[in-house]
Design goal:
Elements (H helix, E strand, L loop, with lengths): L5 H19 L9 E5 L6 H17 L3 E5 L6 H8 L7 E6 L1 H4 L1 H4 L10 E10 L1 E5 L8 H10 L5 E4 L5 H13 L4 E4 L4 H8 L5 E5 L2 H8 L4 E6 L25 E8 L4 H15 L2 H9 L3 E2 L4 H22 L5
Parallel strand pairs: 1-2, 1-3, 6-7, 6-8
Antiparallel strand pairs: 3-10, 4-10, 4-11, 5-8, 5-9
Helix pairs in contact: 2-10, 7-12
Length: about 325
């Protein structure tokens, strides 16, 4: 009887292992459609941007990317759905950072923002405009502050509601200037804009939108300053609050993509790279800028630092002004 040589046995064993390896290997990612949970209703700016991302990512990843809206509780419901999803890279969330950096300071949320959610990539920021109405002749923020100093409490400043970003910005300005300005809270932006056009108050802070820009162009609302990292292309003559000396109040709505904690690092890195590639596309940048949203991008680590910094700032302002949500 002839026995095979050791070399022959080793070669046969290697071939057997090579054939068996795929049976135990992890399936390639992505192997099925992805889902982006949008923390706001369909039809809005956030929904539109998420669908732009889904369209481009589907092409880049070679798999469908579906969009699912889960609005409510200022974004907390959508973020909670992401926190509870399987950490396999197939569920992402799209939201402003407020469910992580603001909402937890105002009441209990069903997730731990530091442990249950991973910031994936910053997508865009939506600037906050400080606007004067026909109720005041002020042409710049200095004149607004002069009027508030001359007649404490007479300047009425509207926001979309208690604990909104506009309210946080107002309280920070009041803290920095030591001025008495009357807060006029609304429930959302619709009635706030109607009353602004009717001169029912002197000032308002509101996220930029095509409707607001139309009113500015018509001369019915006057831009005094903007909360944004830099001046807006659409309003190049309007300074940021940081330029005016109020850097802590220079806030804007930062939006990004999030993942459940526990997603493998290689998948997170791939997603971050693909989203950054998407945000660099000229047609994507043009579509975001046309809606007055400024594309951002960058590393996950930088996005996490931005969230932490805003969370710390919000907590300080909320405690100092004793802000409470409705």
């Amino acid at each position: 009887m002839t026995f095979p040589s050791l070399r022959t046995l080793l070669a046969a064993l290697a071939a057997l292992c090579a054939c068996a390896a795929p049976l135990h290997a992890e399936p390639a990612w992505p192997a099925k459609p992805l889902r982006i949970v949008v923390a706001y209703p369909s039809g809005g700016v956030s929904d539109a941007v998420a669908r732009i991302l889904a369209e481009k990512l589907a092409t880049q990843l070679g798999t469908p990317v579906l969009v699912e809206n889960k609005p409510g509780a200022s974004g907390s419901i959508g973020i909670d759905a992401v926190a509870k999803a399987a950490p396999d890279g197939y569920t992402l969330g799209f939201a402003a950072i407020s469910p992580l950096a603001l909402n937890p300071h105002l009441g209990k949320v069903p997730y731990n923002p530091a442990k249950d959610i991973v910031p994936l990539v910053s997508v865009m920021y939506s600037p906050v405009l400080l606007l004067a109405t026909s109720a005041t002749p002020a042409r710049d923020l200095h004149e607004v502050m002069q009027a508030a100093r001359a007649k404490p409490g007479d300047i009425r400043w509207a926001t979309s509601g208690p604990a909104s970003l506009g309210h946080i910005m107002l309280e920070q300005l009041k803290f920095l200037t030591k001025l008495d300005i009357t807060h006029v809270p609304y429930k959302g932006g619709g009635q706030q804009i109607t009353d602004a056009l009717g001169g029912q108050f002197e000032m308002l802070s509101v996220n930029s939108s095509s409707v607001i820009m139309q009113q500015i162009k018509a001369g019915k609302l006057r831009p005094i300053a903007v909360g944004a990292p830099a001046r807006l292309e659409a309003l190049p003559a309007v300074p940021t609050l940081a330029e005016l000396g109020y850097a802590p109040a220079n806030l804007s709505s930062l939006f990004g993509l999030f993942a459940p904690a526990g997603v493998p690092g290689a998948i997170l890195s791939r997603l971050n790279a693909e989203v950054n590639k998407t945000l660099a596309l000229p047609d994507v940048r043009a579509r975001l800028l046309s809606a007055d949203n400024v594309p951002t991008g960058g590393s996950a680590a930088e996005f996490a630092r931005q969230i932490t910094a805003e969370s710390d700032n919000n907590l300080r302002i909320i405690r100092a002004a004793a802000i409470k949500a409705d």
